[in-house]
Amino acid sequence: MTRAVRLGPRSLLTLALVSAVGVVAFGWPFLAPPTSRVGTHTQDAPWLFAGLLVLLVAVVAAAVAESGLGPKAVAMLGVLAATGAALRPIGAGTAGIEPMFFLMVLSGRVLGPGFGFVLGNVTMFASALLTGGVGPWMPFQMLAMGWFTMGAGLLPGPERTRGRAEVRLLAAYGFLAAFAYGTAMNMAGWPFMGALASNIAFDPHAGVPANLARFVAYCLATSLGWDLGRAVVTVVLTLTLGPALLRALRRATRRAAFEAQVTFEASER
User: Which of 237, 189, 215 shows the shortest CA–CA distance to 30?
Assistant: First the structure.
């Protein structure tokens, strides 16, 4: 099955590096020892981590440059990103109703993990500009959405699962990944509760088990409803609209002839 973005060695290395930095950026409360002074700079950390935005843009640029995307592939990237950005405001502020997630699942499935990571980042960046959601949280959202979309492209290939089985697989992935996305974004904001100190706030002097319990309580108390709404909407849209959209995306991919090999026939003399 053709993929719009085929990551080369340098792009894979860059993606691995930015993912490693992302893991540290999201999980530093559990990675830093209790005696670390990192916790004393929690008010500055969001702005420092906003520098991830520059690194994420560099990954996107490297992937596009190394893969040699043609104009049709770039056009499809733009169309899907614009569509996802336009879907994001629908239901915003209402129980986590976010239809853009099902589009990212299907796009990542059809166009592969490389295209998925790029698409997730570009879509979240475009939607932040569209909705005015630019802030220190944006690079975290971009990275989390890149992972979310890339994961769909890493599922077992369509030669193993087709038809309704494939749609059910994508629905199950969308359900679980929607919770994973919400958990990751909780991790990005939880350490900076500062003024809202309570028994569910991050305690820089506590050990990993204690903070893990606090984090679980924080997720249950603050975002479970939103994550469940996002997951249910993703499942419903995937099961109802998934088959038709998968066919449309695959038809568009074939017509765009992504990564088509150019061959030359010997002329007769």
Answer: 215
Residues near 32 by beta carbon (within 8 Å), at least 6 away in sequence: 38, 39, 204
How far is the first Cα of the chain from the last one, in angstroms, to the nearest whole number?
37
Distances (CA, A) of 205 to 29, 31, 39, 44: 10, 13, 8, 18
> By the 8 A CB rule, do 171 and 82 touch?
no
Tell me the pLDDT band of 145, cut-offs 50, 70 and 90.
very high
Interaxial angle between packed helices 163-189 and 138-153, expressed in degrees from 0 to 180 and rounded to the nearest 10:
160
**In this predicted model, what pLDDT tens digit does every residue of 54-81 receive, in sequence order?**
777 777 677 667 666 667 777 888 899 9
Number of alpha helices (DSSP H) and beta strands (DSSP E) in the chain: 9, 0
Helix, coil or strand: residue 157: coil
* Distance separating alpha carbons of residues 167 and 219, to the nearest angstrom: 29
Sign of the C-alpha dihedral, residues 131, 177, 146, 258? negative
Angstrom distance (rounded) from CA 170 to CA 150: 13
The model carries a pTM of 0.82
User: What is the percent of the chain where pLDDT is above 90?
Assistant: 27
- Token match 């089985």: residue? 165
Phi-psi region of 112 (alpha: psi -120 to 50; beta: other; left: phi over 0): left
Q: Is 91 left (phi over 0), alpha (psi -120 to 50) or beta?
A: left
Question: CA gyration radius for the chain?
Answer: 20
